[in-house]
Design goal:
Blueprint lengths: L1 E4 L2 H7 L4 E7 L11 E5 L6 E6 L5 E6 L7 E5 L15 E2 L18 H18 L3
The structure holds zinc ion.
The site of zinc ion (ZN) has 6 residues, from helix 1.
């Protein structure tokens, strides 16, 4: 699944107006050695451990541990070698924090609770309907 988040933490983490990221089960991706990135939690509860490249400081990947869900890895869409093969985003969340309007047909959710609920709802469906 792919999603776009406009929250302040994602803006700070990516250095961009929004975080456009793709979600994988931990076993689906081969990650660089852990010492190639510096990890940091931006807020509590500490579900999202955000890794920045130790060389350029750019957003590298995130370890995500949401209770009751399998371990996940979020990778910024621009970090993929071929962005054209990625699925379309499932939603925009924290859209009330957007720096600029986005003109696409992807559902947009405002408010933290609604956005996170819509994200988790779609994520659970994507996990259930995809093979590991
Ligand atoms: Zn965010």
């Amino acid at each position: 699944m792919r999603a776009v988040c406009h929250c302040h933490f994602c803006q700070a983490y990516t250095g961009r107006e929004k975080s456009d990221f793709v979600i994988y089960r931990r076993g689906q991706v081969q990650l660089p050695e852990a010492n190639k990135a510096r990890f940091r939690f931006f807020k509590k509860p500490a579900f999202v451990d955000r890794g920045a490249c130790i060389e350029c400081g750019g957003a590298a990947y995130e370890h995500v541990n949401i209770p009751l869900l399998p371990g996940l890895v979020f990778i910024p869409a621009p970090n993929h070698e071929q962005t054209g093969v990625l699925p379309d985003p499932a939603l925009h969340m924290f859209y009330h924090r957007r720096k600029t309007d986005v003109a696409d047909s992807v559902p947009k959710y405002t408010g933290p609770l609604n956005g996170e609920w819509q994200f988790v709802r779609r994520l659970i469906w994507a996990l259930v309907s995809s093979r590991s």
